[in-house]
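INFO batch 0412 | record 1 of 1 | parsing
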Amino acid sequence: MKLSPSLVASLLTLFCIGSFTASAADAGASLPVIAINEIETKDAKTYSLWIARNNAIAKSKLGLDNYIRLYVGQSAGKDTGAVFAVIASDSFATMAANDQRTEEEPALLESRSHLNTVRTLGPRVLLKAVRFDGTNAGAWLFNTRIMASDEAGYLNALNDLRKLLDDRGLKDIKINAYRVVAGREAYTHLVSLNAPSSQRLAAMLDIMVSDPAIGWWISTSAKFRTVVNNGTYREITP
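INFO prediction complete | emitting tokens
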């Protein structure tokens, strides 16, 4: 099927990342917060192995489960091949306390020393979930940065998208949305489609570019937001 330029442009609507589980119906205060740190590295494999060691220490010494999760851009424009480290928590206060605990943990000193030899920290952004369906282990993501002109209106539109995906056998696709709190540049929100595998992500994309009802949803929801950029990403946490 040949896509019109307007439909292709409208598809670029969704950006995701996260590690906690919560219902989309939960009150905003109970939804997670996340920190996304872009990582500059020429050796993603070695970096990910040290993150795995770091996470194991954080779990055994501090009780922090899956403390840092890693994602890499796939078909993601300028983000292709870029690595992102994500930390999730129930609040920014808890996140700050956990950051301090990890910095003060002697067993993590060696791990941090090795990390510093294979990576440089890039921009860091803090975000608060405003809709959260949950995540899939080893997720494949369709992620978009947007400028939202009407957050409430767009969140209502995402409820409509949820029903459309459910009706088309895509209940395993999680829809998450995050508001930028600190580190904002050209976007206000990240909106996420989180799939359990590359095959399920591809199946979703095929439906999105061919289903008339979803095409209508894309065109009508455009009044609530302007797309900044988008791409596909996958989790590489060991």
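INFO post-check: The two ends are 38 Å apart (CA to CA).
INFO record closed
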